[in-house]
Write a structure and sequence with these properties.
alpha+beta; ADP-ribosylation fold; 3-stranded antiparallel beta sheet; two-stranded antiparallel sheet; ADP-ribosylation/crystallin J1
C-alpha cells in the first residue's frame, strides 16, 4: 500500500495572548474567527518577520508576543498571492476573514508556539 503525502508550506503568525488562548482552545488546530475590524487574516512567510512583529508590536500592546509555526497544504495556498508588505523579506498572505474556516481545514498538524517575547 502506498501512502501519498500532501506537500505543505510552513507559515508563521505572530500573536498575542488572547488569540493564542483561542488557538489552544481549538486543540492547536485552528485559527479563531476574525473580529469585525479584522477583515483579513495575515500569516507570514518567514520566521524573522514574525519575530519582529511579535517582539516589536505584540509585546508593547499586550505584554507578551508569541511566534507560531504551522503547515498548510501547498496546493490550497496557491489561491492566495504572496504580498510584499515592505522590504524583500516582509512577505505575507492575505486570507479574507470569510475564508478562514476553509483555510483551517487545510492546516496539517498542530499550530506550534516556537518563540515567546515579554
Amino acid at each position: 500500500m502506498t501512502t501519498q503525502r500532501t506537500e505543505t508550506t510552513t507559515l508563521w503568525r505572530p500573536t498575542g495572548p488572547e488569540e493564542l488562548a483561542l488557538v489552544a482552545a481549538s486543540g492547536w488546530r485552528a485559527w479563531p474567527p476574525r473580529l469585525p475590524e479584522q477583515p483579513i487574516f495575515y500569516p507570514v512567510l518567514n520566521e524573522d518577520y514574525a519575530i519582529r512583529i511579535a517582539r516589536d508590536w505584540n509585546v508593547p500592546a499586550s505584554g507578551v508576543g508569541y511566534v507560531t509555526r504551522f503547515e498548510v497544504e501547498t496546493e490550497f495556498l496557491a489561491r492566495y498571492p504572496v504580498r510584499r508588505a515592505g522590504g524583500e523579506t516582509i512577505l505575507e498572505l492575505w486570507v479574507p476573514a470569510e475564508e478562514l474556516d476553509e483555510f483551517n481545514r487545510h492546516l496539517v498538524g498542530e499550530i506550534q508556539v516556537v518563540r515567546e517575547y515579554r
